Amino acid sequence: MIAALLVLGAAVLLAAGFFADVHVLGWIALGVAAVAVVLVLLPTRGATPDAVAVAEPDQTPEPDETPDPEAVPEPEPAAAADLVLVIPGRRRFHKPGCELLAGHDVEKLTEEEAREEEFTACTRCVK
Predict the structure, then answer these.
(1) pLDDT tens for residues 103-120?
(2) Domain ranges (residues) in the chain
(3) 8 A C-beta contact, residue 109 and residue 77
(4) Is the backbone of residue 37 left (phi > 0), alpha (psi -120 to 50) or beta?
(5) Which of 8, 30, 59, 101 gets the highest tally of CB atoms within 10 A of its CB?
(6) What is the DSSP letter of 96?
């Protein structure tokens, strides 16, 4: 709050110095603005240690980036022939490798699920 008031005061002094053609007011405005900058950049100066939050290094160990394949069981995959891909927001399903999927995010479904959700087959890749 004090810094904002100092900046406002500096602006008023600068404007007054400009319009009154008094260069000293411009230098005073520069000094007041510098004080405001110091107050903004050093907000904790003079604060008690209890008031300043001290960041302590994180003591938690970093997780292993490669999960143990035995620890995380994968769900039973559907047969590759049964999997189809859909583009969210569109009503067609495609076989993996369809050229119309290029550059799009896709979701995997079984062909049965896609048909239940009223998706229709792509005329290029599903024969």
Answers:
(1) 999 999 999 999 999 999
(2) 2-41, 83-121
(3) no
(4) alpha
(5) 101
(6) T
**Per-residue pLDDT tens digits for 67-83:** 555 554 454 555 566 89
Q: Could you report the per-residue pLDDT of 10-33, keeping only the tens digit for each?
A: 677 667 766 788 777 677 877 777
pTM flag (> 0.70) = no
Q: How far is CA 52 from CA 37, 39, 49, 88, 113, in A?
A: 20, 16, 5, 48, 56
**Nearest residue to 28 (alpha-carbon basis) of 15, 41, 43, 42:** 15
Residue with tokens 């048909």: 115
In the numeric block, the tokens 């229709």 are attached to 120
The identity of residue 111, as a single letter, is E
Please give the backbone phi and psi of residue 38, each rounded to the nearest 5 degrees, phi first.
-60, -40
Residue 93 phi/psi, 5-degree rounding, is -110, 155
Give, for 95, the enclosing helix (H) or strand (E). none
